[in-house]
Here is the input.
Amino acid sequence: MKSLILKFFAISVIFFSSITFGSADTTMRISLQLPLKSHLGQNLLLFKKEVENRSSGDIKVEIYDSAQLYKDKEVPAAVGSGSIESGVASLTRYVGDIPAVDLFYQPFLLNTDQKVRKAVSKGSSVRGPIDNAIKDTGSTVLWWQAYGNAIMLSNGQAIKNPSDMKGKKVRVFGKTLGTFVKASGGAPTLISGSEQYLAYQRGTVDVGMTGVSGVKSRKLFEVMDTLTKTNHGVIEFIVVANTKWFNSLSAKQKDIIVKSAEIAEKDVRDNVAKIEEEAYNLAKSKGMKIVTPSKSDIDAFKAASQPVYDDYKKNAGSLGAQLLEAASKL
Here is the structure.
């Protein structure tokens, strides 16, 4: 923890002069773990364009992609402490402070686009309480970024049934997903998104869990040859800003950022289906085998997943119970 705090301080010092003496009145740095060419990176570029045009250059947006400054798991602390103005993090990175956020990884719960859209709409009975809870970490949610459904990657054998998972080391990116893997007979290993490629290349894990768009942006087709469309969870990223920094802005600046965030959120949500389709097509063109589990296979996964729900109910508290009830009514 001490080394992490020193890292945040050092990076803040390095950029202090550019913030103070830059041509723009206000500089907003955003940390992103994914490459700029990823659809989340492109979404940030849209936000940057909107903010800088609307502010006539008064607000300058700087994007630090590919985990140049912080890994995904470091973003909540970096933004919450004010070491950086803004960052993009997988929603599950807040599970330590807010266990209820892993609602989206309850297996097959939000299993249609319609349900997901209702759940993530601003101020909904699902998203509203989550956004409010994140305020307690020192951050304000600006917008949610759709990343798509969770899928499985492997070499040779498809992971289409819990029996295929038995004895396998599986890359996960959240505790609840780890519980899902354990319930299915596998051994979960928490690996950051930016470290996936090497983990697969080196054989650190046997199976990968990610969003299909990551197969394209991270070139995972080079190290894995089979993709299974389990769609067992919904991957959401959030763009957060340090609350003290955001509150220090003028009313006009806040309005510009909020409106630009709304445009960016609508764009990524409306295009995620197309983005996933393009990623599947690319994966196939690169020689990957695309496998869709049968209904009986999915039913087997659902049956194995009961411990995941039990664990969530046990650990997510009253907020988790509230969100689970709200999601079941969608």
Remarks:
- Confidence is low (pLDDT under 50) at residues 13-23.
- The domain at 2-328 is CATH 3.40.190.170 (D-Maltodextrin-Binding Protein; domain 2).
